[in-house]
């Protein structure tokens, strides 16, 4: 009460004085608090510079893109540009051959990687007289562009450019055993025309399941006359051998500047830096290499690659690419036949100083390194290689034989097919069977194609094995018609990778290639997996992942596997693992076809037919996703035909309707393929 009665008698000056005093105390408090926080921040904060910047975690800067292929063509007097979309090097090889052809018609060509240029400059190509753009486009996987053509493909899809001044031609490289045969070549040809470009010669469709080399030669021999007619030019003479590179032998060289097998940056295998890709592979150590089959003549193996500290991430269904090495005995034999010191350090330098490609492979290096790590010495050489080598055969009969096989005449094509392709003669076999053919080793190294990475479906889940990538492979080994024993480069090389015996000899250069082969987004969606033989690989990863999801308490849908092998007691891969997953309930159905354990062969498609009612129920009622992995030529096609029959029978559809139904599943991502031929 007293306080209340006194409050009205306080004068205004007294109130102001009390407020001044209060603010002073607040100021002191705030200043003290701020000072304390600043002191703590300055002396006790976790300083950024205290975190060590480990050399291993440095990133490799992306390569700088060239400014403009138009400016380059103007500067170097070129009027034909041949772009290539290449995954295994064949499209690039064809592009180089076409660009070299141009000189025979008074034209000048250049091969170009679309990844290195801005393709929107195509609208400016008409600024160059008698200009032409040729596209050698390979199709990868299930109708996808190759890695180096992805940006070009994206641009074509989005572009609204006016290409009315552009003259073009397309040669596609594909394989008829695949669902989307030559999809990339067909798309580029169609899209360029839609954008107003003028096609001067029909689309070429090469089929690697048949004879890709013959398809290319047949197209090429009609393509150039069409170019001549369009531009009013004539051939200047016979095809002649023109060297693209000059040899420089290094007698006094710093060995620290010499390539010893690296794919890109010098010493990249000694000083590894992410990100890891095709030009900068990671050296993974093999920690396990075990034989999977219990009997039989074949060798099926399971390898585990350690990717710890690499920053490499992968998902189930991705592919691992490995860079193999050629058999040292084959390399030695080539050196011996040609009388060459394989340890000579040399460089092959491009005679065209303006070319982006300064060397055919990393230089300087030794002939031994080039033949071991950089060049393909095991595949039958293409006709252009035979043509160039013919000049070195001192025996007239052998020279004529080589020239005939390199010609476009029907007799020559037939001879090349039988003597080289079907007999599987590699360069060593040709040198052995033609004693007078002794080319200079530097020209041989210039002509041979690059040794390519080999792709394998990853047989593990990163949820379960974040620091390892598993591979399932079968060693390739066969006898040729000439009685020679040919071995697969990569599988023979991988077979000899013994863990821990010698660190350097158990290292594998590798990188991961992303795939569209993916488990459904919802774990509760049923999956039907069909993968005979080593086609089981991605499904081991899928099942591991579904088991992990189940452990996390997620609702996991039915997981159904159709697997096939020859004999139950010989090549039943991952038998114990699959039995355990089945017993634990992760694998709800395990259907295995042993094709040769009875008089009548039984394959996975037969088991699908046997369980057709259940298959339809999962597909129609459960919205199941279908996955097929393995042989494209027979198995994948037979399985697809079986699904047509099941859909037609239980969906009450005609055959064309059933086909359309399955195609729509593919479009929606519910029917996925990871196949090879």
From TrEMBL:
UniProt keyword terms in alphabetical order: Endoplasmic reticulum, FAD, Flavoprotein, FMN, Membrane, NADP, Oxidoreductase, Transmembrane, Transmembrane helix
Any GO MF annotation of the entry: FMN binding
Biological process, per Gene Ontology: response to hormone
Annotated organism of origin: Heliornis fulica
Protein name: NADPH--hemoprotein reductase
EC number in record: 1.6.2.4
InterPro entries in alphabetical order: CysJ-like_FAD-binding (IPR003097), FAD-bd_FR_type (IPR017927), Flavdoxin-like (IPR001094), Flavodoxin/NO_synth (IPR008254), Flavoprot_Pyr_Nucl_cyt_Rdtase (IPR001709), Flavoprotein-like_sf (IPR029039), FNR_nucleotide-bd (IPR039261), NADPH_Cyt_P450_Rdtase_alpha (IPR023173)
PROSITE patterns membership: FAD_FR, FLAVODOXIN_LIKE
Domain Flavodoxin-like residue range list: 80-224
Taxonomic path: Eukaryota, Metazoa, Chordata, Craniata, Vertebrata
């Amino acid at each position: 009460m007293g306080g209340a009665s006194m409050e009205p008698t306080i004068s205004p000056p007294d109130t102001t004085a009390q407020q001044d005093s209060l603010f002073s105390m607040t100021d002191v408090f705030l200043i003290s608090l701020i000072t304390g926080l600043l002191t703590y921040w300055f002396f006790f904060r976790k300083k950024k510079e205290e975190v060590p910047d480990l050399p291993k975690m440095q990133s490799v800067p992306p390569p700088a893109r060239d400014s403009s292929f138009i400016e380059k063509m103007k500067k170097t007097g070129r009027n034909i540009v041949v772009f290539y979309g290449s995954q295994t090097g064949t499209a690039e090889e064809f592009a180089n051959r076409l660009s070299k052809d141009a000189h025979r018609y008074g034209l000048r060509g250049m091969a170009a990687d679309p990844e290195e240029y801005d393709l929107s400059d195509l609208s400016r190509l008409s600024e160059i007289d008698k200009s032409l753009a040729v596209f050698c486009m390979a199709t990868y996987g299930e109708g996808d562009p190759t890695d180096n053509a992805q940006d070009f493909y994206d641009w074509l899809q989005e572009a609204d450019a006016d290409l009315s001044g552009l003259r073009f031609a397309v040669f596609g490289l594909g394989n008829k055993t695949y669902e989307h045969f030559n999809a990339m070549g067909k798309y580029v040809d169609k899209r360029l025309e839609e954008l107003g470009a003028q096609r001067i010669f029909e689309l070429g469709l090469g089929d690697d399941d048949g004879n890709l080399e013959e398809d290319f030669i047949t197209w090429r021999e009609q393509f150039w006359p069409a170019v001549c007619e369009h531009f009013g030019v004539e051939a200047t003479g016979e095809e002649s051998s023109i060297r693209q590179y000059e040899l420089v032998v290094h007698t006094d060289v710093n060995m620290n500047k010499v390539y010893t097998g690296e794919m890109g940056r010098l010493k990249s295998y000694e000083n590894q830096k992410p990100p890891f890709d095709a030009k900068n592979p990671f050296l993974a150590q093999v920690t396990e290499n075990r034989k999977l089959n219990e009997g039989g003549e074949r060798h099926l193996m399971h390898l585990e690659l350690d990717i710890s500290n690499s920053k490499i991430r992968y998902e189930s269904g991705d592919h691992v690419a490995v860079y193999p090495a050629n058999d040292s005995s084959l390399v030695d034999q080539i050196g011996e036949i040609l009388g060459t010191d394989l340890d000579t350090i040399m460089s092959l330098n491009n005679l065209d100083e303006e070319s982006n490609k300064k060397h055919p492979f990393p230089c300087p290096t030794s002939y031994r390194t080039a033949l071991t790590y950089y060049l393909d010495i095991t595949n039958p050489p293409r006709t252009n290689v035979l043509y160039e080598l013919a000049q070195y055969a001192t025996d007239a009969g052998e020279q004529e034989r080589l020239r005939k096989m390199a010609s476009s005449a029907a007799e020559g094509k037939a001879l090349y097919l039988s003597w080289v392709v079907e007999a599987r003669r590699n360069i060593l076999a040709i040198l052995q069977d033609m004693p007078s053919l002794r080319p200079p080793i530097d020209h041989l190294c210039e002509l041979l194609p690059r040794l390519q990475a080999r792709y394998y479906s990853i047989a593990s889940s990163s949820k379960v094995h974040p620091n390892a990538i598993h591979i399932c492979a079968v060693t390739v080994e066969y006898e040729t018609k000439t009685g020679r024993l040919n071995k697969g480069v990569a599988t023979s090389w991988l077979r000899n990778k013994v863990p821990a015996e010698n660190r350097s000899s158990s290292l594998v250069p590798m990188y991961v290639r992303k795939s569209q082969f993916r488990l459904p987004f919802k774990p509760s969606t049923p999956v039907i997996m069909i993968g005979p033989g080593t086609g089981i690989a991605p499904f081991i990863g899928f099942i591991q992942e579904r088991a992990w999801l189940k452990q996390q308490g997620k609702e996991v849908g039915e997981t159904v596997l159709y697997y096939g092998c020859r004999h139950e007691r010989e090549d039943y891969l991952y038998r114990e693992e699959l039995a355990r997953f089945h017993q634990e309930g992760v694998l709800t159905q395990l259907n295995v076809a042993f094709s040769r354990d009875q008089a009548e062969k039984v394959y996975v498609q037969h088991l699908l037919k046997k369980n057709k009612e259940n298959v339809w129920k999962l597909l129609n009622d459960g919205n199941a996703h279908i996955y097929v992995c393995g042989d494209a030529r027979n198995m994948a096609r037979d399985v697809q035909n079986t699904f047509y029959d099941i859909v037609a029978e239980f969906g009450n559809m005609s055959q064309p309707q059933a086909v359309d139904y399955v195609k729509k599943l593919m479009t929606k991502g519910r029917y996925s393929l990871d196949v090879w031929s």
